[in-house]
Specification:
The protein is an alpha+beta fold and 210 residues long. It has ten helices and six strands, in the order αααααααββαββββαα. Helices cover 45% and strands 13% of the residues.
Length: 210
């Protein structure tokens, strides 16, 4: 599912539409404003069933985006359907549960893909200002990447702000590897972002769930 953002508040209605009206109407994709893929879903009858399976996985896990790049025994471009089937294949060929397979990896706390809405006319100039201001709030040891927005990385966390190519919003993500510090960093970023001409209700709503 390409560029599908499912925040916590959207998971339940998306799932209900998926269960009741996904076959063959693709109602859950219309709800998420993915009109082109929704029409393709109808025409192909849910990708002959494959899209239906993939959408189920993406909805129940709250997947932010379908851009999963696979190079091993594949062509090296993003293909969420292939990645989902590959995961099913891995689970089918082992006696371990998914939790057991992932237990060896570093744990983190993260936000979903959050949209900070703004006037389309000022979206890029506003982002430019944020990119210039962000370093003022963090230690000079933080790594700053300013390609396509801004990504700030430290030893314990990273966050990203970039302009959406399709909507009048700036997209935000935060991942923290110290669980007890996640909310603290989230509150700090809210205090920074609320000073700009942004609608941050989606971000503050998420903060209330943490």
């Amino acid at each position: 599912m390409n560029e599908v953002s499912i925040s916590k508040k959207n998971i339940l209605p998306t799932f209900l539409l998926f269960i009741v009206l996904s076959w063959p109407f693709g109602a859950h994709r219309f709800y998420l404003r993915r009109y082109a893929s929704a029409i393709l879903f109808i025409i192909t009858i849910g990708g002959l069933g494959i899209w239906w399976i993939v959408d189920f996985i993406l909805i129940v896990t709250g997947e932010m985006s379908g851009h999963i790049f696979y190079n091993y025994k594949y062509y090296g471009y993003d293909d969420a359907i292939y990645a989902s089937l590959k995961l099913i294949n891995i689970l089918n060929n082992t006696k371990k549960t998914l939790n057991e397979l992932t237990s060896v990896y570093m744990k983190s706390s993260s936000t979903p893909e959050i949209k900070l809405y703004c006037d389309e006319k000022i979206k890029f100039s506003l982002l430019d200002k944020i990119v210039k201001d962000i370093p003022k709030h963090y230690d000079s040891s933080a790594k700053l990447i300013t390609i396509d927005g801004v990504r700030l990385e430290t030893e314990n966390f990273w966050f990203l702000l970039r302009a959406s190519n399709t909507q009048n919003c700036i997209v935000f993500r935060l991942e923290h590897f110290v669980k007890d510090k996640f909310k603290e960093e989230l509150i700090k970023l809210i205090s920074i972002l609320e000073t700009y001409s942004l609608d941050i209700k989606e971000l503050t709503s998420f903060n209330q769930t943490v």
